[in-house]
Amino acid sequence: MIVLLLTLPTLTPVPGPFGMVFGTALALVAIQIAAGRETIWLPSSFKRRKLSATVMDSALRYTAPLVAWAEKTMRRDRLAILTSKPVRMLLGIPIFLLAIAIALPIPFGNFLPAIALIVIAVALMERDGLVTLIGVILSILTLAATAALANAVIAAFA
After folding, report:
1. Which one-letter DSSP state was computed for residue 75?
2. By CB distance 3.0 to 4.6 Å, which of 2, 23, 69, 123 could disulfide with 131?
């Protein structure tokens, strides 16, 4: 759930450092997932941070229909091996890489990594291995697209 909650604000089309702040928090969470922690620890500075109602309303407005549709199509324990603890720990790697992609200052670079993270987060919450597999495939495609976008941005400034 924390991955989903930290990802939603990055979809908000509001200027500001959302990518850096939430990408950093997501990276911290990803490291803990990879380490096999059952509970997530965040620094008190992140815990004290409050989101404006406007930002949360905007994020939920854009993503609620997608999450509702996803929940209707998912089935608990489908391909259960892909939701086992070792696999969940391995998912810390793509979550970490997607968090870094979100934190990068690439124009419009948050959208694809955020969508991939939402798919993984919802798959983990629902314990649907097929959707987890889709999330991993989407993550690979997203990271390739982000690398191409970053390369284009670097080439434009070089």
Report:
1. -
2. 123
